[in-house]
């Protein structure tokens, strides 16, 4: 789908510039929860004697060798996802897809956060704050803009995750509780809190791969709803609400705090009916059943049907009744 006149393209290079940082977040980071209560510990790495266990999710950035600096009790989301299928030492295709979806969703959220910061002047304020030149009169605006950026990043992360994961959803449904670790001090802390909450939800609900996808999808929906509800009364969000982006590679539209929807895959199920369940003329049903049995006698190797050879098929017959009563032609 091409861009419309009111949409801006979020360039692919702007998204991929955040891939390395997004992969590092999935690999591991330290986070002490402020609002949420831990229900599970971080997965402990298993090592055989004398054999070091390498990580299975690797960055696709050429030349980049990233190492996790997170402590054992930190958030290690990649390991948590890899353990969703039990003791299988190899990562499954679905787990790899989930990790790629999360990495891309984080990168998209951070790229949109940069766009928001550039539009509002927040990026200049951040530089001034680091240099110690931020004026005291600007600190309230600076705090409001950082909180607004956090809401933007959280909603876009949930929006992109739900959109990209939709084709991989099955029939499993997971009911999550409240999303407690919802932080809006700044964008980085907001992402840390959201990923910590996701790690806890996966540990609690994702007992297998179908429930893993369902858990992440439910988390993304809950995150979007909470971010949108908080944004309804938050200041400094006009530049985001009034803008519209499209990511061509994913066909993903981003329109403020409106969720983007994509149909999830459905399994086609045929509903077969028995002859006694079909309402109609009993003679016509009997003839249809005879014809079906004759067709089933077709020999695919010899490419012939014994009923046809013996003249058993009746291709025409006469019908006598009033006009409009449904006589076959």
Helices and strands, with pairings:
Blueprint: E1 8-9, H1 12-16, H2 19-27, H3 77-82, H4 93-120, H5 122-131, H6 139-165, H7 187-205, H8 209-231, H9 238-241, E2 244-247, E3 252-255, H10 282-296, H11 306-309
Parallel strand pairs: 1-2
Antiparallel strand pairs: 2-3
Helix pairs in contact: 2-4, 4-6, 6-7, 6-8, 7-8
Average pLDDT rating: 84
**Strands of the largest sheet, in order across it?**
1-2-3
Counting DSSP E segments of at least 2 residues, the number of strands comes to 3
How many H/I helices? 11
The residue fraction in helices comes out at 40-55%
Give me the Rg, rounded.
29 Å
Q: Per DSSP, what share of the residues sits in E-state strands of 2 or more residues?
A: under 5%
Main structural class: mainly alpha
Give a structural overview.
The protein is mainly α and 329 residues long. It folds into two domains: 8-255, no CATH class; 270-329, no CATH class. It is built from eleven helices and three strands, in the order βαααααααααββαα. It has helices at residues 12-16, 19-27, 77-82, 93-120, 122-131, 139-165, 187-205, 209-231, 238-241, 282-296, 306-309; strands at residues 8-9, 244-247, 252-255. It has a three-stranded mixed β-sheet with strand order 1-2-3, with helices on one face. A hairpin with a 4-residue loop joins strand 2 (244-247) and strand 3. Helix 2 packs across helix 4 (93-120). The longest helix has 28 residues, at 93-120. The chain starts with 7 loop residues before the first strand and ends in a 20-residue tail after the last helix. 31% of the residues are buried. The model is unreliable at 47-70 (pLDDT under 50).
């Amino acid at each position: 789908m091409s861009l419309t006149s009111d949409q801006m393209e979020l360039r692919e290079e702007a998204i991929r510039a955040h891939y390395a940082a997004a992969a590092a977040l999935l690999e591991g980071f330290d986070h002490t929860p402020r609002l949420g209560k831990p229900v599970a510990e971080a997965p402990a790495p298993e090592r055989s004697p004398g054999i070091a266990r390498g990580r299975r999710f690797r960055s696709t950035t050429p030349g980049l060798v990233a190492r996790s600096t997170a402590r054992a009790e930190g958030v290690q989301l990649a390991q948590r996802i890899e353990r969703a299928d039990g003791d299988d030492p190899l990562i499954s295709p679905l787990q790899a897809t989930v990790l790629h979806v999360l990495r891309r969703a984080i990168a998209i959220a951070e790229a949109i956060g940069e766009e928001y910061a550039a539009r509002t002047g927040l990026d200049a304020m951040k530089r001034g704050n680091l240099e110690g030149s931020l004026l005291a009169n600007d600190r309230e605006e600076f705090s409001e803009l950082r909180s607004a950026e956090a809401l933007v990043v959280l909603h876009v992360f949930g929006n992109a995750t739900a959109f990209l994961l939709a084709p991989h959803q099955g029939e499993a449904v997971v009911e999550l509780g409240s999303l407690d670790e919802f932080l809006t001090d700044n964008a980085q802390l907001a992402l840390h809190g959201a990923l910590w909450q996701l790690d806890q939800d996966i540990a609690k609900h994702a007992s297998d791969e179908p429930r893993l996808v369902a858990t992440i999808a439910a988390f993304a929906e809950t995150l979007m709803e909470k971010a949108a509800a908080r944004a309804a009364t938050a200041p400094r969000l006009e530049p985001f609400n009034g803008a519209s982006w499209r990511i061509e590679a994913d066909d993903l539209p981003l329109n403020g705090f409106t969720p983007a929807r994509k149909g999830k895959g459905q399994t086609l199920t045929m509903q077969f009916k028995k002859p006694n369940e079909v309402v109609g003329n009993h003679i016509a049903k009997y003839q249809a059943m005879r014809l079906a049995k004759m067709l089933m006698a077709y020999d695919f190797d010899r490419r012939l049907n014994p009923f046809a050879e013996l003249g058993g098929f009746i291709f025409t017959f006469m019908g006598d009744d009033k006009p409009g009563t449904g006589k076959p032609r």
